Amino acid sequence: MELRQLQYFQTVCQLNSITQAAKKLYVTQPSITNSIKNLEKELSIVLFDRSKKQLYPTVEGKVFLKRVDEILKQVDNATSEMKDYQDLKKGILTIGIPPMIGTFIFPIVFIKFKQLYPNIKLNIIENGSIETRQMIEKGDLDLGLIIVDSNSTLLASLPILDSELLVCLKKEHPLRKKTTITFEDIKNEPIILLKEGFYIRQKILESFDENNIQPNIILSSNHLETVKGLITNGVGISFLLKEIVEDNDKITKIPLSTAIPIKIALVWRKNRYLSNASKAFVDFLMENPITTPES
What we know:
Largest sheet: 7 strands, mixed
Strand content: 15-25%
Mean pLDDT: 89
């Protein structure tokens, strides 16, 4: 059974004539006649009452017509839906983005993108950069906005923003007047870090290790507001992206004497099909570079 046969049958039922159906469908009358005969043979039923001048479906034909109408309607819907995806009227885009990056990039990027493509659904998966990168490499995510520190043979990337980590202290902290801070300055300070899977945690631990210092880690969290609240209340110090805290007057922000640069990029797996929704997002970021107040 073919869709063409169902379309021929439906049109003959609508027009009660093979001749008129052939004209409407731009095919020959024998094509429709043979198609319907083959359909009747396959179904082992008679679909039309041929005793009159016009063709009318039999009882069995009427039952079959209801099913054919449903089938062809679903085919039309599927075709229209796929065209919508092709035309970017619809689409689903799954993006991995660490909470810290999402805090300041989401208002800048996603709102503008949704204004341009309101019917593209965005699924945001919040994990650290390391875990997000692994998910993209495995093909579990379409795209990721993550911190990158090296080229990958598996991932393509689009640079988005250069940032750096700042030491974040409570407003009245004794170190507040320093212009830069070394790891020696904070060797005895209680440290609050993001949890495993976050690139920033890994870099901070590497820096402590390079300075032969065992950090006094008192708490790990993946909730940014929790970390900022603990800093503000003097529970401990932490390391956050400058864009996260530059407008926070309750936290003292001081650069490290040896800066830890942070490069944020949009990444996706090489040699993997990019949907039109994904291509639209990549093109959008290329045409709308992210800028900070200082740039």
